[in-house]
Amino acid sequence: xxxxxxxxxxxxxxxxxxxxxxxxxxxxxxxxxxxxxxxxxxxxxxxxxxxxxxxxxxxxxxxxxxxxxxxxxxxxxxxxxxxxxxxxxxxxxxxxxxxxxxxxxxxxxxxxxxxxxxxxxxxxxxxxxxxxxxxxxxxxxxxxxxxxxxxxxxxxxxxxxxxxxxxxxxxxxxxxxxxxxxxxxxxxxxxxxxxxxxxxxxxxxxxxxxxxxxxxxxxxxxxxxxxxxxxxxxxxxxxxxxxxxxxxxxxxxxxxxxxxxxxxxxxxxxxxxxxxxxxxxxxxxxxxxxxxxxxxxxxxxxxxxxxxxxxxxxxxxxxxxxxxxxxxxxxxxxxxxxxxxxxxxxxxxxxxxxxxxxxxxxxxxxxxxxxxxxxxxxxxxxxxxxxxxxxxxxxxxxxxxxxxxxxxxxxxxxxxxxxxxxxxxxxxxxxxxxxxxxxxxxxxxxxxxxxxxxxxxxxxxxxxxxxxxxxxxxxxxxxxxxxxxxxxxxxxxxxxxxxxxxxxxxxxxxxxxxxxxxxxxxxxxxxxxxxxxxxxxxxxxxxxxxxxxxxxxxxxxxxxxxxxxxxxxxxxxxxxxxxxxxxxxxxxxxxxxxxxxxxxxxxxxxxxxxxxxxxxxxxxxxxxxxxxxxxxxxxxxxx
Length: 639
Prior knowledge:
By secondary structure, the chain is an alpha+beta fold. It contains 19 helices and 18 strands. Strand 3 (359-366) and strand 4 (369-372) form a beta hairpin. Helix 5 packs antiparallel against helix 7 (180-227). The chain is elongated. The two termini are 13 Å apart. Residues 1-11 have low confidence and may be disordered.
C-alpha cells in the first residue's frame, strides 16, 4: 500500500521558529496572571536586595569601619547594628528568590499539563494519514524531550532571565548613583561584551533548533528498531541497523556539540571579561581616589572614597554576572522555543474533517414506526435531521454499495479504479488478491479513514459522507491482522470494544471467539495483566482476544482483515465456528489469504492492481476457471 509522503505542515527555514510561538506559549501561562505578578514582585525584591546590599558596603566602610580605625576603645554597637540590617536585606532577598521559584514550579507544571492535554486531545482528532506520514518515535519525542525543554525554560530560564535583566538595571542605576565616570567605563566595556556574546549565541542558535529535530528522528528510529527487533535478528541485520543508528546519532552528536560548544563557553568568556573589568575599575578607581580626582555621582560632586570604590567593584560583578546568565539562559530558551515550535506543529495539524450530520441511534419498532430510545437494543437507526427541523429515521440494515469509486493515497496516483460492489444485508463478501491489490484500502474507505477521489459509497442508501465518522465507525466492528493490546487486564482489553460491557458480556464474547479456554488457563484468568502489547501471549492468542473485543461490541457490520492469518490451521478450525456465530445475521467483509476461509462467502471478489477482475460464489468462480481457479488449484499463488 502506497502512503503519502508530504506533510501537512511546511518545513521552516533552519534556525527559525514557528511564527507566534512566544506569544502562544505566553497565552498558556495567562491563566496564572496573579501568580506571575507575585513572581515579578519577588524578582524585583530580590534584585533590589542585591543592589541595596552593594550600596550598603559604601556606607558600612566609609561611615562605620574607617572611623573606628586607630581608636583606642572603638564602639562596635553601630557597626553591629548595620551588619544586622545588611543581614536582614540579604535574608529578604533569599526568601524572595525562594518564594518566586516555588511559585514557578506550580506555573510550570500547570502550563505543561494544559499543553500535554491539548496535544493529546488534538492528536486523537488527527486523520490516519498523519500517522502514516510521521514516525511514531518523533511524535513521542514531542511529548517527552520537547516538553522537557519547555519545563526547564518556564521554571528556570525565563524567571532567571527576567531576574537577571532586573538585576542588571538595578546594578546600573546603583553604579550611576555612586560614580558616573566609572559607569561610563562599564558602559563602553559592556558594548564589547555584548558583541562577543552575540557572536557566540548566534552560532549556537541554529544548532540548538536542529538538535531538537534530529533528536526526534533518532527517537523515531529507535522506536522502529525496537518494534522490529525480531525481524532485525532473523535477517542478521544488527550491524546494518547499528550503522544506520550511528549515522543518525553522529548527526545528533554534531548538532548538540556545535550548539553546546558555543553555549558552554559563553559563561566562562563573560566571567573572565568580568574579571578584566574588575581589574580595570580597581586600577582606574584607585588611581583616581589617590589623585583626589572629583567624583560625579547622581547625588553631586564629591571625593572617590574607599567605600565607594569597593561598593562599585561589587556592583560591577552584580552587573556582569547577570549578563552572562542571560546569555546562558538564552540558549535554553532557544532550545525550548524549538521544542515548542514542534509541539505547536502537531497541534496545528488539520483535524480529521467531518461534514456528516446523520447519526446512529438506538431504536425500537412501535406500531411499525421507528422510535429513538436511550437504552441499547438490538435495533439501530440512522437519524436524519432536516433543514425544516424535522427528523426522519432509516433502519440500519448493513447495505453497503460502492459505485464507480476511484481512490489514491497520493494525488495523480490512483490505487483503486472504478470499484463497484454491492454488499446486501447479512451477506458475507470476501476480497481475494495479491498484496497491494487494494483489499485493505476498500475497508479503509468504508471506515472513512480516507475519502474517495471519485464515485460514491452508500450505506443503507445514505451517502457515506453525510454520516458522522464516529457514528459510522460505531456501526462497524473491525478485526485487524495486526493486533494492538493495551496495558491492562484481559478483561479490560475485551471491554475496549464496549466500555459499558459487563464482565458476563465480555466472558460471553470470549466464549463466542473460543478464547475463553486459554484465558482461564492464564495465571489470573480474565484478571491477568497484559503489558508490552501482550508480549507474553502467542500471536494466535492475541488475535483471539481481538476477535472477542469485536464480538462484545456487537456491531451490525463486521470487517475481518486477515483476522485468522496468525492462527494455525487447527486453531483456525476452532475459531471459525466462533467467527461464523459472530458473522451470523451481519454484513461481513472478509480479507483472507487462505482461500479455505472464504469458500462459504456469498460473494468473492478477486482484485488485481486496484480493479475487480472476477466476482461470484466459490463454485461459480471455480467453474469459470479464471484467476480464482488458478489460486485455488495452486496454479497461481498470492504474493
